[in-house]
Amino acid sequence: MFYSRDKRFRDPVGAVPDGKKIHFRITLPRELSCSEACLVIEQERGETFCQGMFWCGMNGEDKEWWECHFTPEQPGLYFYHFECMTLRGRLRLSRGFGGAGVFGGTDRWQLTVYKKEFHTPDWLSGGVMYQIFPDRFFSSKTPKQGVPSDREFHDSWNEQPNWKPNAQGRVTNLDFFGGDLRGIEEKLSYLRDLGVTCIYCNPIFEAHSNHRYDTADYSKIDPLLGSEEDFVSLCRKAGEYGIRVVIDGVFSHTGSDSVYFNRQNRYPGPGAYQSQESPYYPWYSFSHWPDSYDCWWNFDTLPNVRELEPNYNNYINGENGIVRKWLRAGASGWRLDVADELPDEFIDHLSQAAKEEFPDALVLGEVWEDASNKTAYGIRRRYLLGGQLDTVMNYPFRDAVLGFLLGEPSFRFFETVEGILENYPPQCIRLLMNHIGTHDTERAITVLSGEPAGQNGREWQSAHSLSPQQRALGVKRMKLASLLQFTLPGVPCIYYGDEAGVEGYKDPFNRAPFPWGKENKDLLSWYRALGALRREYRSILAEGEFLPLSSEEGDLLSYCRQTVKNGKRESLLVAVNRGSSPVRLPELPFRLQAGTPLLGGLPSPESELPPFGFLLTAFSEPEDTLDREKGLDISE
Length: 636
What we know:
Immunoglobulin-like, 36 strands, alpha/beta, eight-stranded parallel beta sheet, seven-stranded mixed beta sheet
């Protein structure tokens, strides 16, 4: 038997720095008469080690322990299993569900080894992020200079975003509501009251769509958003509120309508589309100049760049490049769009430039899967091994939270969460961007209570909104989802308007303007309470251990976050009931009456949570009063 997430079997658990000695132990039935055991561990694209194990005593009356130590000397991914010579022949102990060992399987455990000098910024840990789609958050109504004349403006802030194709059958995303940087600055007190410590802005550089992922000029703020001075002012004023600003870097492609490509002849030029003598021509890959070129997902408005072309790399990552320019202007970090499509060497250069300019700069990547073992375009990525990303957007946690609330068993929730915690370095875990929705997904409240969009197109989506009954259910489920989001390891990120009850299906309906003056007051009050609690219990939520408490099938989900300080164990108990009937709490490692109820009060005398009920309770007890061990009873 072996449990990769239990210190009795592997110490330390989780990812480790290179040069760290790891203690492995397995327990075997005595009846197998094991005469030899070994740990078989393979470094990806490297050596395979067979580390002999030693018999080290009995485990009860009918089991025995075997142990060894292994020290990984190089960063990278290692995969391991155990082999035992027994009366039944050579048996393989392999990875089963939940990190448990099973005989006869073929799966291996993963060991992530990162560079021992790998450090991540402290300022984000324990905080709250807030994602803003700039055109749709708030407009200061300040007159702007140099706004292109071909942009379409909505007459009312409360209109639905344009979704119909134009006469040529193309969706142009050229409709604007006029949100701007000064508008964000005017709402900083609102964000502070939510507990926000970091704003993540979708692209702010000059571009000709409302999403601005088709960059026209990395060196300029889009004129509709304001000026470089407005950006400097926003960062400075946000800092006075204890809020940092992280900006979006779209470096795998540019817009075709840009200074660099200039297919629409908007700029003086010459762009790469206009002349093969253009200084930007080497940035792009043409199969037949000028009309046939490599594009992002075949959108001809988004020509891909060759990130490692020396001039482009220097333009972005050089001493006076784009990365450093905007850090100097006040940004505290970068979120890298489609990190999967950026070469490793480019991310190396970008991270180095950011850290040299501002050692505490955050470099956060868009990765939708487990980023520790992600393979993109046939290459295993090394995002989290040190020298690249500090952390990533945490889509697996989003799927786990929404999946549980929509009926998936709790053991799947725990498997997702514990799998990430096992594979990611701890310095990445504490900064994980834990969202339940972004500009690329349906609104969380719509997912949780609306009719699934399925294969229905934009016309269907435009006509469907939540009924009063669905909306009431959605608010209940949003409270449960956000409670989980705010108490899981990592940093919760609110997608603008989620706290106000904004609904919407896929793009562009998930990008509607913030409903100022029409917020769901109940939900907004709830989010403010979560923000206040996160400030008060920051030390536990920033670094505290995650301990599952319930994993049986049913509507209950419960876990604990805990840390030890000054000889005391500080703990937070989290429990939610997703169902429409009361549920009984399991036997807990706490006396509930001894805790301090923070949200939800204490359960009923029958230890029941009501329908859609929740519990967040704080405990502070001497360290030796609680059982520190977790996992299964291995003596049985």
